[in-house]
Each structure stands twice: as C-alpha cells, then as structure tokens.
Amino acid sequence: ENDLWWAQAAAVPGAAGTPPGSTSPADEFQSVQYGLAKMNVADAWKVTLGNPDLVVAVLDTGVDYNHPEFAGRIIKGPNFSYRKPEPTAKQGEQPAPGPDDPMDDFGHGTHVAGIIAAAADGKGVVGVAPRVKIMAIKVMGASGGGTTWDIAQGIHHAYKNGAKIINLSLGGPKSNDFVDLLISDALAHGSLVVAASGNNGWNLDGPPVSLGGLGSVPHSIYPAMYKGAMAVGATDDADKLANFSNYGRKLSVVAPGVKIVSTMPTGPCAMTKKAGFMNHYDAMSGTSMATPMAAGAAALTMSAHPDWTPAQVQEALERTADAVGPAPFFGRGRVNVGKAVI
C-alpha cells in the first residue's frame, strides 16, 4: 500500500550529560520560548541537559545539518523520500537531495529538530534537550508529503541504528498493519515512538468522518493512534488546547505547540521561498511542534534514568503531567519534565 501521509505543519510564520546544579542555558531568543517555562524545563536542566550519547531520530522532511545549532550532533540517515529525477530538470531548479542525503528542502524537519535539540550556545534558540544527538532521516520531500513505505523504512532504520526516541511529526487518517508492527518492534528494541495527534480539531473519540464518495474513516490520525505510540496534542501559552489540535482520551499528553520559535534551514527551501518563512529561525504552530517538545522531555527523562524502558519513560511523563484542562481532552495533562526527571 502506498498511501500518502502528510506532515502536520501549520505553515504560518509568527512571531545525563550534565551534573546536578548546572546553570541553565540562556540563548538569544529564549525569552520568547514560552514552552520551556510551561514544561518546567529549567528544573530538569538542573539534573541533565541530555546525555550526549542519546540519539533522537527525526523522521521528517530532513534536517539542515549545516545549521550551527546542530554542529557536531547530527547523524545523517538515509533519504527514503528520494525518487529518481527526470532526465531533464527545469532551468534553475535545485536538484533534490540524493538517496544518502537527508538535507531539508521543505523546512518542517529542521524546525522540529531545533525544538528537540538546538544547542545551548547563547545564540538563537535552545532545544529542550540541547546535548543529545539528532538522527536525521528524510521520509518526506519538498512538498511536505511522503508515503507509508518511506515512513516505515525510516522507523525501521531508526531503531535498528540506535535511536532511543523516534519523533514522528506527521500522520494521516489510514492505518497500516506493517507500520503498527514496526512501532511495536521499536518498543521491543528500547525505542520510544512519539507522534503528532493531528491538526484537524477532532475529538478522537468521536464518530467516523465522512470522505464523501470515498466512504468514511474513524476520527483517528496514524501513527499516533497505534497502541505503541505516545500521542501528543498541542496547547498554547495560556495552557489552553490549541484550536487546531486533536483531543480526547487517546492522547498521552499535551505540550506547547502554538507559535513555537525554532530553527529553519539556513538556505532557501519550500517554506522560505513560498510561505514567507525566514531563514535560520521562525515560529510555527501545530501538533508537529508539540510532539518534539514531548520528545525532548522524553530525552531528558531517559538521560536522567538510562535504565528505564520506553514504557517507564512514557509513564513518568504522563504521571507527572500538569492537569491544565478537563480530562480526557488533554490526555494525562501538559508535560512537566521538571517533575518527570526526578
């Protein structure tokens, strides 16, 4: 099956590595990174900024591995979205990244990666877990879309090559048994899969959605709805559910996902050329942004407790989440990683 899955991007520009007692990073745009304060990241940083040996896989449109925020901490994975180019390219058209090149030619993946792990270097932004490594695996191309098969290959590559957390800021309404099996296998290999719940504004416990002549599908977004995935919804700077976020008892947690400032590719890409985003840094909204917030929190928790299983890490994040809204709309609550790492 070769169904098309889409990145959950809201393309509207808007505004154990460290010993206890370490000082918190202070980066250039940190004052507008409200999500860090909401998730109590400063308290978590007193325990760890992230184990430098911990690898978080970002399965997305690629990552700009030349961005200074990721210097020395990128593991280049494959480009599963690669398609053999036409014999003649349009004049002036940039060639697409090759099969071994996970360069981001869209912009979404670089933004996601920065939320997780932008460096604590006093410049730009700082990620939730600024010392962990990012494994860049390109499963979506310059259009922001990719196939089920591309994503399946990406998941398999990630957990077979040492990624302990797999971030999936993507999704679609149709399930796939093979991807479901791969996520279960990832858990068995010690990898936590964190996935976006979707930007449809759906109650995930509601009745099926009509697709007109194409029939109907459940109020579900996959891979977030698979049993083995940690599904994440989005909140804003007032701890209210984002108006676009899917919600319901199928969520694990929620995390900040509205006007999140993070890294953008340093060179032109689809989002900077067509959607008006700036190079280097910009703000985006979506469950795509909330998901790496939660994945970064998972990275800090796993760094503080390297002997914990993925299930234990997820349980800690759920158990310590703040009840900011009525259950079950917010899952178990909004992530509070300062409590989870203890």
From TrEMBL:
Residues 53-324 form the Peptidase S8/S53 domain. GO terms for biological process: proteolysis. Keywords: Hydrolase, Protease, Serine protease. SUPFAM superfamilies: Subtilisin-like (SSF52743). The keyword DNA-binding does not apply. One of its GO terms (molecular function) is serine-type endopeptidase activity. Pfam families: Peptidase_S8. Residues 78-107 are annotated as: Disordered. The active site is at D60 (charge relay system), H108 (charge relay system), S288 (charge relay system). Belongs to the peptidase S8 family. This is S8 family serine peptidase.
